[in-house]
Structure formats: C-alpha cells, structure tokens
Write a structure and sequence with these properties.
Elements: E1 9-11, H1 20-26, H2 37-43, H3 45-53, E2 58-63, H4 66-77, E3 83-88, H5 91-102, E4 106-111, H6 120-129, E5 135-141, H7 153-162, E6 168-172, E7 191-195, E8 206-211, H8 213-219, H9 231-235, H10 250-267, H11 269-290, E9 295-297, E10 309-314, H12 319-330, E11 332-336, E12 351-355, H13 362-378, H14 387-395
Parallel strand pairs: 1-11, 3-4, 3-5, 5-6, 6-7
Antiparallel strand pairs: 2-8, 7-8, 9-10, 10-12, 11-12
Helix pairs in contact: 1-10, 3-10, 6-7, 11-13, 11-14, 12-13, 13-14
Length: 400
C-alpha cells in the first residue's frame, strides 16, 4: 500500500516548487514580441531584480541555466591567461573554477573541504603574498548547493580590502538569491551570478548577471567576450531583442514577473530572508532531535549553514532507502548527494539534501519534516524522538 495519492511535495534544492500563480501567469498565448505589453512588462523586471540583489548596478537576463550565467560572468571579466583565486567549499565552487580553466583562465584554488565555509584569514594571507597583483579576481559561491555551506560574503570582501588588493570579487548566488541575505552593493560584490529556478520560483531557463562600474570597466579589455554573452548590449540595448540575444523567453518572463510580484511587492525581500532562516532552523532542530544515531548536519557551525538547502549525513547507507521511501510511499522528493560522492557508494547512500527555498510555508516545511520522521520509523532506522515538536517550537518562537 502507498499513501502517495495527494499533491507531491518537492523538497530538492532546485528547481524549487513553482507557485500556482507563476504557472498561471505563463499559461497564455504568445504575444507580440516587438512592441506593446511584453516589451512594457519586461522593463519592470530589472528594478525588482536589483531589489532582490540589493544593487544599483546593472542587471542582465540570459536565456540559460546557472552554468550559462557562470560562462557569461567569465567571458565578460577576463582575458586568456588571467589568474583567478577560487574559494571552494564544495562541488559548485569547483565547477565554476573548472569552467574558467577550460576557457583559458589560470586557476588557483583555496579548498576548504566539504564541511565548512571559506576562511577570510586564509584569503587575506594569500592576497597579501600577491605583491604584483597577478590575481585579477576572487571567485566563490555564497551557498554551495552540494554541501550547504554558506560563505560569509561581507567578511571575504573585508579580507580583500584589508589586503589592499585590487582583485574584483565575483559571487555565485544561484542557490542563495532570494533566500539568504545578500547585499551586493553594501558587501562590495563586483559581479554576481544567479538563476531563476531556486529562490525566484520560476521554471529553469533564465540566468542573471549583476555587475558594477568596476566590473564594467574591466570588461572593456576582456578578450573572452563573445557576441552572445556580451553584457554591454544586454544592459544598454538599441533594440528589445538585444536584451536576450534574440527571441525573448516570453513565458518565462511572464512567470518571473509574477514571482517578483510575490517576492518583492507582497512579501518583501527582508521578510523572505527571515522566513528562510526560520524554516532552516526548524529543520536543523529536527535533525538534532533525531540525533547522531540517525543523522548529523554536514555543516557544524550554524553561522556557516545555508538557509536555502541542508545536506544531512545519515549514520550509514540509510539516506537512499529513506529518500526512496519518502518518494514512493509518501510523495516527498528529497535531494541526492551531488558531486561529492560516487553514486552507488556507501558515502553517496549516506547523504541526502533538503531544499527549503522559494515557495514554502509552514505546512510544507512541517510536512517534509514529518514525512522524514515517518520514514525513519517505517524503515526501523534508530532515531531520537521529538523532531516535529522541536521544529514546531522554532516556527512558533515569535509572532509573525
């Protein structure tokens, strides 16, 4: 018998749950793509995207996933042979570095492993040794989706400044934008990369690049710039189609418009950050109640954990059967370990991820926690009691 006959719950770290309102906004015939409603609506997206990013700089939209936005950032920032320092806290920082290397950039890695955030002191020490300023940029992710480590972006910027180093600061916010606090201008980020399918609650297909004047000046001499990725016409187009390098992603734009209505104009970005923090802490409380006999949080330090995704390690190869029970018997999809263990290995089968990003409320979060709790019981996995009570206590701590 299965109890999986209701609406399925998606709790993976992207693509996240798509709100019904976003789906409805996309459900329309194709409009005129040369003038009128679509063109007028598109202009309203950019101020709201800047609000989410907390920047007064430039915002651009690409028809791509996050990897495309990665490539756009690299092509607009560097020439072949440039040297870049990449801070790695998991699979995605390494992935961005690998792409840069394949495009002809000299990469130096500062690898902090899989269970902690980047250390600003190590960044400061390395930049101080770069006496001739060979390092052109420091690249990192805010949240590494694979490990759920969250890097302290403001502290890393301070390390660059304390070293009196001119390196540009480039940050991947694909998993964190709209979920974790990010203040691009206040934190001194020069280039920021994001995508639509996580905190922005829109089906995959849109990548975003935000950049300031320092980055724009550097782009003038970058020899990796290509016609499609060039951010110049996308930020100052002569014609509407140049915003997208061709035909606009019509229905994704309508979906994004509705998602930004919800995030910026109805909830507010500050409130969204607080909501994501509350749900993350509720999940952490549940994991702590289940106890180390069942599972542990991958990131020990609370201030280094993402509020968008949590990687959990089970005490043995129990994560895969737990995921399978949740999906098949209960209708809950949890995330697999991604890029940090080989599929089929004991380590792979001992990790799962919970996405708590985007369109999420109390019944959805508590439903995820309660279903995991039921799965532990159904599979006879030893665990502590009181997980749902602990999560509920966190959610009810303060008045909304």
């Amino acid at each position: 018998m299965t109890l999986n006959f209701g609406r399925p719950q998606l709790s993976i770290p992207g693509p996240s749950v798509i709100p019904d309102r976003v789906l409805a906004a996309m459900h329309r015939p194709s409009p005129n793509i040369y003038e009128g409603e679509l063109v007028d609506m598109t202009t309203t997206l950019y101020p709201d995207l800047k609000t989410v990013a907390q920047t007064k700089g430039k915002a651009t939209i690409y028809i791509s996933n996050g990897h495309g936005a990665w490539e756009a950032a690299i092509c607009n920032s560097f020439s072949k042979g440039d040297k870049v320092l990449v801070l790695v806290t998991g699979n995605f920082g390494l992935g961005w570095a690998t792409m840069a290397r394949e495009l002809g950039i000299e990469i130096e890695l500062l690898d902090f492993g899989l269970r902690r955030a980047a250390d600003p002191q190590q960044v400061l020490d390395r930049l101080k040794r770069d006496k001739f300023h060979e390092i052109k940029a420091v690249m990192t992710v805010q949240t590494d989706t694979a490990t759920s480590a969250q890097n302290g972006i403001a502290a890393l910027r301070s390390a660059i400044d304390d070293a009196q180093h001119p390196a540009r600061f480039m940050v991947d916010c694909i998993a964190s934008l709209g979920c974790d606090r990010h203040e691009m201008d206040n934190w001194g980020v020069d280039v920021m990369v994001a995508a639509c399918q996580k905190g922005l609650m829109t089906p995959p297909g849109l990548g975003f690049l935000f950049f300031n004047e320092k980055a724009a000046e550097a782009q003038k001499t970058a020899d990796l710039v290509t016609p499609y990725w060039d951010w110049h016409l996308r930020s100052k187009p002569d014609r509407y189609y140049q915003l997208f390098g061709g035909t606009p992603p019509v229905h994704l734009l309508y979906g994004l418009r509705e998602a930004l209505n919800m995030l910026v104009h109805e909830e507010g970005i500050q409130a969204a950050w607080a909501r994501h923090e509350r749900f993350a802490r509720a999940l952490w409380a549940a994991v702590e109640a289940w106890g180390e006999q069942a599972m542990t949080l991958n990131i020990a330090a609370p201030d280094q954990r993402s509020h968008a995704v949590t990687l959990i390690r089970t005490n043995g190869p129990q994560a895969t059967p737990l995921r399978q029970w949740c999906a098949q018997k209960a209708g809950l999809t949890l995330g697999i370990s991604l890029g940090i263990a080989d599929p089929g290995s004991v380590e792979f089968d001992s990790m799962f991820r919970v996405g708590h990003m985007g369109h999420l409320n109390v019944p959805m979060m508590m439903g995820t926690i309660g279903t995991i709790d039921a799965g532990l019981k159904a599979l006879g996995i030893p665990h502590g009691s009181g997980a749902c009570d602990a999560a509920a206590q966190v959610i009810s701590e303060h008045n909304f």
